[in-house]
Specification:
alpha+beta; Fumarylacetoacetate hydrolase, domain 2; 5-stranded mixed beta sheet; 5 helices; globular; binds manganese (II) ion
């Protein structure tokens, strides 16, 4: 049975796949020690059962000493297709939310160094936390704020217009490589300000009308 996310308008959205993109805000690329690069965006995936919904209790994962938050704008597809145009891709989005791409940063650095895939750093159980989904309607303005507060202090804040590749462009590119489908989600990348979480932290992520509260469990 596929996991679901609650819809603001009632009912549940069945989740099929969770796509993610890395390095989609230039300031975050720089804070990670890289240089913004043109070309194919860095796509990766999380398994659907990595999903946690609103109000989540996040268990501090094993095998890391540097467990990071990445707040991200998330879009949900109501239909799919292969080789979509950017306009078709935009029109396929039915809802949005705000999410956390939780990351074992120390392990990710080691995997990058060894040229290995990122799965063990990015795709563990509970690594994808997402809010209630809000109807997309006409989409969100580029001036819309994406923000994460931890224990009442702002850790990450940007506007959606700062994304290197916009939602339509990301989905257009992704749909060349895979046939997208209803139920697919896309995490659209994190802005600068990523950093460590510790047990007991309380998180509040917001983007447009989407709002996500979560906390890191006191004991792992
Ligand atoms: Mn991310």
């Amino acid at each position: 049975m596929s996991p679901t996310l609650p819809l603001r308008t009632g009912g549940n959205f069945p989740v099929r796949r969770i796509y993610c993109v890395g390095q989609n805000y230039a300031e975050h690329v720089r804070e990670m020690g890289g240089a913004p690069a043109a070309g194919l965006p860095c796509f990766f995936m999380k398994p659907p059962d990595a999903l946690l919904g609103p109000g989540a209790r996040i268990a501090y994962p094993p095998e890391t000493r540097d467990f990071h938050h990445e707040v991200e704008f998330v879009v949900a597809l109501g239909r799919g297709g292969h080789r979509l145009t950017a306009a078709e891709a935009q029109a396929a989005v039915v809802a949005y939310g705000v999410g956390l791409d939780l990351t074992r940063r120390d392990l990710q650095a080691e995997l990058k160094r060894r040229g290995h895939p990122w799965e063990l750093a990015k795709s563990f159980s509970g690594s994808a936390v997402i809010s209630e989904l809000v109807p997309w309607n006409e989409g969100l303005a580029p001036t819309t704020t994406l923000r994460l507060e931890v224990n009442g202090r702002v850790r990450q804040e940007t506007t959606l217009g700062m994304m290197t590749h916009g939602v339509g462009e990301l989905l257009e590119i992704l749909s060349r490589y895979d046939t997208l489908a209803a139920g697919d989600l896309l995490f659209t990348g994190t802005p600068a300000g990523v950093g460590p979480l510790v047990p007991g932290d309380r998180l509040l992520a917001t983007c447009g009308e989407a709002r996500l509260e979560a906390h890191v469990a006191d004991t792992g």
